[in-house]
Amino acid sequence: MPSERQTLLTSYLQRILTAKVYDVARETELDPARSLSARLGNQVLLKREDNQPVFSFKLRGAYNKMAHLTAEQLARGVICASAGNHAQGVALGSKRLGCRAVIVMPETTPRVKVDAVRALGGEVVLVGESYNDAYDHAMQLAEVEGLTFVHPFDDPLVIAGQGTIGMEILRQHQGPIDAVFVAIGGGGLISGVAAYLKAVRPEIRVIGVQTVDSDAMLQSVRAGHRVRLNDVGLFADGTAVKFVGEETFRVARELVDEFIVVDTDAVCAAMKDVFQDTRAILEPSGALSVAAVKQYVAREGCTGKTFVAITCGANMNFDRLRFVAERADVGEEREALFAVTIPEERGSFKRFCELIGPRSVTEFNYRISDERRAHIFVGLSTSRRGESAQIGDLFATQGFAALDLTHDELAKAHLRHLVGGRSDLAVNERLFRFVFPERPGALMRFLSSMHPDWNISLFHYRNQGADYGRILVGIQVPDADGSAFQQFLDTLAYPCVDETDNPVYRLFLR
């Protein structure tokens, strides 16, 4: 008599082999991530579901479910709840099948996803802050209007549609595969992929990936029953699910080998890695699998293995790229952040910069506030993980008290953007914006050119990856030194703008 596991595998294998997905979906590429592979010492293959017509895998499961509906059900129409990607799949499927589609989405859904659903003809209803809020409202509408609910993950037909990704992976790469990494929201994708892989190639490890603030599946598997989260993080909105499905929990608990959780900075770094290899910009949820591959390799210390990461979506709100770029280097630990205390005396700023030596300064924030001590926020480029601790020790040996902020969320999200406020000590202050070539030594040239009697009272700089850097500097210049200061500016030859009379400066800083 077959075991429960074998029965599960047999039933899903049949559903996946007979799934109807290719009327709307395409077989996506299995691309090598060459730069990332070389850096990790393992072959990393990207299953490019971000290249689907709706830039996500979700149309596979949605269409497979809808293609199995009766003519009467299609005539009444369908409804779904989704953070965006499943919504686009349902909208595209309904357009193909010629039926009405009502899409209930959380109010937090990125605008790019809402606009995409409307462009496909979906009737969008925005409700609540998370998927579960949208789900409750969609179920009410389904009952009132007689619509058929198309679940984003907790349906065997939806799961089977997603499972066709596993089928394609094995067809495209018939050599050894050590593990496949799959992002988890509600669990539909990993359930389908795991069902196919374990039925055909059971030696391949299936590793689920969630964010540290949206790990409902991991908590459920550990508890032995479905756990409902009170809140979920919204950065990776595509996987922000408070309560996983009953069927997906049953399948994942039985078939998934391991779960890995990753944080926001690691996801941002993974998005950058994929961009460097493919020039594609993934959404955060689409990069979870890549972040987990890196974390797994670092933990296991393995080389020569073959890993597949499913890049499951690219519905990225363009405005969020600012945040991603800011956090990517910290996620890769290519930048260390510190709060450093130095003596408030002329020359100490320059002495501190000399101590930094050949390291690139990625950020520098300072505002005069105390007659004896100066507190500065500084970012420095690093070349390897764990280097921030060594830099902190170097500061301490030279008499500069330093607090390592590399992993401090308050510092990374807010403090780095604060220059300071008004200061009674900033007498005779003049404010300038400078533009200078972004190359080693430019900052030291600026400091070395200054007259020793002129004190820097404000400094703000952030490397934005451009060829030219921009700094905001407050310099205390006595009125009698006006001509000498002008000569300093002319000799420096950096383009600058005098902002001393800017009303914003006078309102917030002077």
Automatic annotation (TrEMBL):
Subunit structure: Homotetramer.
Domain ACT-like, first and last residues per copy: 336-407, 430-501
MF (Gene Ontology): L-serine ammonia-lyase activity; pyridoxal phosphate binding; threonine deaminase activity
Classification of source organism: Bacteria, Pseudomonadati, Pseudomonadota, Betaproteobacteria, Burkholderiales
UniProt-listed Pfam families: PALP, Thr_dehydrat_C
Reaction catalysed by this enzyme: L-threonine = 2-oxobutanoate + NH4(+)
UniProt similarity note: Belongs to the serine/threonine dehydratase family.
Example GO biological process: L-serine catabolic process
The keyword Lyase is annotated on this UniProt entry: yes
Function statement: Catalyzes the anaerobic formation of alpha-ketobutyrate and ammonia from threonine in a two-step reaction. The first step involved a dehydration of threonine and a production of enamine intermediates (aminocrotonate), which tautomerizes to its imine form (iminobutyrate). Both intermediates are unstable and short-lived. The second step is the nonenzymatic hydrolysis of the enamine/imine intermediates to form 2-ketobutyrate and free ammonia. In the low water environment of the cell, the second step is accelerated by RidA.
Protein's UniProt name: L-threonine dehydratase
Protein's pathway: Amino-acid biosynthesis; L-isoleucine biosynthesis; 2-oxobutanoate from L-threonine: step 1/1
NCBIfam families in the cross-refs: ilvA_2Cterm (TIGR01124), PRK09224.1 (NF006674), PRK12483.1 (NF009130)
Keywords for the protein's UniProt record, in alphabetical order: Amino-acid biosynthesis, Branched-chain amino acid biosynthesis, Isoleucine biosynthesis, Lyase, Pyridoxal phosphate, Repeat
Provenance organism: Sphaerotilus montanus
EC numbers, comma separated: 4.3.1.19
Cofactor or coenzyme needed: pyridoxal 5'-phosphate
Signal sequence annotation: none
Superkingdom field: Bacteria
